[in-house]
Amino acid sequence: MRFFKFIGLVAGMALVASSAAAQSPMPSYKGIGAPATKQEIAAEDISISREGKGLPPGSGSSKEGAEIYIAKCAVCHGPNGEGAKIGPALVTDKNAHESLTTMKPVRSLGAYWPYATMVWDYINRAMPRNQTGKLSPSEVYAVTAFILYKNGIIQEGDVLDAKTLPKVQMPNRDGFVPARLEDIPDEHKRGCKQGICP
User: Fold this and answer.
1) Which of 1, 10, 32, 165 ranks highest by number of CB atoms within 10 Å?
2) What does each C-alpha distance from 111 to 93, 95, 154 come to in angstroms?
3) pLDDT for 116-160, tens place per residue?
4) DSSP 3-state assignment of 114?
């Protein structure tokens, strides 16, 4: 009986504490910080859609990208994109996408990533390591072109820009589940079991 009284007492104390916390006024943050300006918001609003919406002006080719890659990327990813201790491989076997249907898939940039715009977006946001935002849009286009060329996805002379980059057909572009599972007609592929589908 004492145990139940103790539990009741603890529950009552918790109820009083939570109701007191709910009634306490919110702290005032007046005079701290300032509203973000349009320029500050624009500087952070760098999302790129898979269709290329948001890509900035500029252009670059694989030949231009090779020089930038050696100067700013090779130290982490190896001189030929083969990977190093710090960074993963960016270039894999040109048939690596065929491994995706095996028990040991190679989820590399060239084999696995579905959209070339994702490559541009990632480089723009996160590279070079500890120096993000240091590459100009044209440099990002050029490095993207170099990596895609080395993976056998585009030709060496192809020039990437806001119009051509979204048109690049990545090997695994159609390898992902569609946004609507109903678009997969084969119930077995959809993961249906005993007539119940996700």
Assistant:
1) 165
2) 9, 8, 13
3) 999 999 999 999 988 888 999 999 999 999 999 999 999 999 999
4) coil
